[in-house]
Amino acid sequence: MSTKSFGLPDPVYRYLLANSVRDTPLLRELREITATLPMARMQISPEQGQFMALLVKLIGARRCIEVGVFTGYSSLSVAQALPADGHIVACDVNEEWTAIARRFWEKGGVAGKITLHLAPATDTLDKLLAGGEAGKFDFAFIDADKPNYRAYYERCLSLVRAGGLVAIDNTLWSGSVADPEVNDADTRAIRELNAFLHHDERVALSMLPVGDGLTLALKR
Ligand SMILES: C[S@@+](CC[C@H](N)C(=O)[O-])C[C@H]1O[C@@H](n2cnc3c(N)ncnc32)[C@H](O)[C@@H]1O
Question: What residue's CA is closest to ligand 1, atom 25?
Fold first, then answer.
């Protein structure tokens, strides 16, 4: 889930968008259609999509995992940045939202790069692990139900190679993680994962105020 990058004053955010986001008519159309949905705020921000596209190019990613598709903005952004033989295993449970994603993957010419698994993501990730896929992915993006974040992280970390990247969304959770008065299940789950990641020696770590907080964990 994401909004504009964290804590930026509106004029500065507008400047950032106007001077860095390389928009396309397709990405704009997907944002406009998603904006009409009640859960529109779950979509990642344009600068985050572009940043993730840069990340996959930076690490030379070919095989990716996405946990939490919604209407497809992050997967479309990443798929368009992958080489022709690149691929995303995309996990979600919602048919209605992912039908929009499928439509935009088709329009963007990347449908052939994405396999959607409509099932709880832990099941899909466990099947990949059982199928001998550990260490065979380059990049994973976690952006689904928060109480399962730790479960997703452990599975994704096993599935990526050494030098592969796990990116975790919403790690600042609109600032709630820093507010001791907020103790709902989602906030607690993110707080606990943040505390765990801080000392997880299996990865090099960076928590960035991009979108709603984006943590990068690079597998050693
Ligand atoms: C924040 S949205 C993802 C936003 C998306 N990355 C984007 O760029 O627009 C979270 C998604 O996680 C999905 N989700 C929730 N619980 C899930 C589960 N147990 N397994 C897989 N996906 C789940 C929801 O259906 C929803 O589409």
Answer: 94
